[in-house]
Amino acid sequence: MGVFMTEVLVVLVILAIMVALGFGLLGLLKGGKAGSDRMFKSLVIRVSLSIALFLFVMFSGYMGWIQSNIVMLDAPTKQTPVQK
């Protein structure tokens, strides 16, 4: 899986999380038992997608499909004392 496909998949999952958030809002506005059920299902979908996205990003980093910010890895780890 290439870097482009990984990015596309991540964006699609984030959009799916946003859609589930919208369905939860509709359930909140509807109210009652049906609205409560819709909000609960939306919450389950959002949590499941978020956990799956986190695991996918971790797996992608492990497989080398994505890489961390190299600039931060090159930062100095200790400072030299200032001489007077």
TrEMBL record:
One Pfam family recorded for the sequence: DUF2909
Spans traversing the lipid bilayer: 6-31, 43-65
Keywords: Membrane, Transmembrane, Transmembrane helix
Domain of life: Bacteria
Protein name: Twin transmembrane helix small protein
